[in-house]
Design goal:
alpha/beta; Rossmann fold; Glycerate kinase, domain 2; five-stranded parallel beta sheet; 15 helices; elongated
């Protein structure tokens, strides 16, 4: 058979490209031909997935979440550039892993977008996952030319974090970018309230109950200054409110993350050549079914009449849930190595073994 290998990353142990290569080793040992198509849904690994699909990587230095310079990159093909928040100002970029809920910003994301524009991009595909900040997109807007002023008319410094939003009295939009921005976004949270950016995602960024309340109030003020009509749009609360800022100040369009990335990678054309698909991610669970990569792969494959197998570190879905999603067989690394630390350390080897067993069981 010709097999399309389309896994997401195993977070904390193996990037999507590494997972795909490990799956491919088992498939070729069984005599199958393979086509690798590592996937992403807008979070970390989105640029890597584009590079694996033939995009050119462009390296640069930009501001990390708390302003320190970090080495990052974007991907480019023709006039399309792929930019990833996680790799420049996401949680993984916090110095020493120290959470900074008030001062972290999206400034670096704007700097990478600017670099892509300067390189001639007319279309920006922007992945929002993994944010460290709750700044409503203020930092990225400033990096692209927005001017934020306080009550005394003074311009706020670049990289205004969520803690600085209450001081904003006026916000001048950035100059026209001369490019379209499409945002890969897999959450439907509004900007404010109990389901908003601060309440839902603030705690993972270091915000306690009082901080969540303060950041929600800061975002509410920011929305009043910038334009409250978009605060309730699904996805406005993505990446600490960066979804709101992108829509309000940059006229960006939010799209489901996997669908946007899959179209970018030519997934359907690759699927048309396949007799079987193998996908996977670190954990197959209820969150998978809410639009994450493997569910998207399975849905498209089922529509095309192609069977799907999946490998994961752990499988928490039952047979009925898997069948409903279009996945006909699964294998879990923790069934081969119950010790989590050892399983993560030897993920590539275990993925190959798991797929080998899965192929034998489904013959």
């Amino acid at each position: 058979m010709h097999v399309l290998v389309a896994p997401d990353k195993f977070k904390g142990s193996l990037p999507a490209v590494g997972v795909a290569e490990a799956i491919a080793r088992a498939l070729t040992d069984h005599g199958h031909t393979v086509e690798l198509c590592p996937i992403a849904d807008g979070g970390d690994g989105t640029v890597d997935a584009a590079v694996a699909a033939g995009f050119e990587r462009r390296a640069l230095t930009a501001a990390g979440p708390t302003g320190e310079p970090v080495a990052t990159s974007f991907a480019r093909s023709g006039d399309t550039a792929v930019v990833e928040l996680a790799d420049v100002c996401g949680l993984v970029r916090l110095p020493g892993g120290v959470l900074e809920p008030y001062t972290s910003s999206t400034r670096g994301l704007g700097e990478v977008v600017r670099a892509a524009l300067d390189a001639g991009a007319g279309r920006i595909v922007l992945g929002l996952g993994g944010s460290a900040s709750t700044d409503g997109g203020a930092g990225l807007a400033q990096a692209l030319g927005a001017v934020l002023r306080d009550a005394d008319g003074r311009e706020l410094p670049p990289g205004t974090g969520g803690g600085g939003l209450p001081a904003v009295v006026t916000a001048e939009r950035p100059p026209r970018l001369g490019a379209t921005i499409e945002v890969a976004c897999d959450v439907d949270n509004p900007l404010l309230g109990e389901h908003g950016a601060a309440a839902v995602y603030g705690p993972q960024k270091g915000a306690g109950p009082d901080d969540v309340e303060a950041l929600d109030a800061a975002l509410a003020h920011w929305a009043e200054v910038v334009g409250p009509d978009l605060a309730e749009v699904p996805g406005a609360g993505a990446a600490g409110g960066a979804g709101f800022g992108l829509m309000s100040l940059l006229d960006a369009r939010l799209r489901p993350g996997f669908d946007l990335v899959a179209d970018l990678l030519g997934f359907d054309e690759r699927l048309a050549r396949a007799d079987l698909v193998v996908t996977g991610e670190g954990r197959l669970d209820a969150q998978t079914l809410r639009g994450k990569g493997p569910a998207g792969v399975a849905a498209r494959a089922r529509a095309a009449g192609v069977e799907v197998l999946a490998v994961a570190g752990r499988v928490d879905l039952d047979a009925a849930e898997l069948a409903a999603a279009g996945i006909v067989g699964t294998a879990a690394l923790l069934d081969l190595e119950p010790d989590l630390d050892r399983a993560q350390a030897h993920a590539a080897e275990l993925v190959t073994r798991a797929v080998d067993q899965l192929l034998r069981a489904t013959r």
